[in-house]
Amino acid sequence: LEADDLPEAAEQCRAALGMDATMAAAHNNLALTLAAAGDLDGARDEFLAAGDEAAANYNLGLMHMADGDYRSAADAFETAIQLRPSFTAAKTRAHAARLYLLTGGK
What is the pTM of this model? Predict the structure, then answer.
């Protein structure tokens, strides 16, 4: 998405949620749109509204990594792991984020 497309994308997601407020894909897409626009709090709320708290924290971790905030990313991944101990992808990302912090990104 281009920055100019973000408001339209968000509006489309909200329209979908107006038809079915339980549509997880629309919540996730709206969260990604809000994150791209810099609204991380709104993104977090939408990820959580999708109904899977472990996945929401995993997605937040990915957002933090993309922003270069590896400490917050690692914390989000760890929360995902606490919520779902078998979450292998979260374990892998948590390890990568912690390793990045320990080595200074080298």
Answer: 0.84
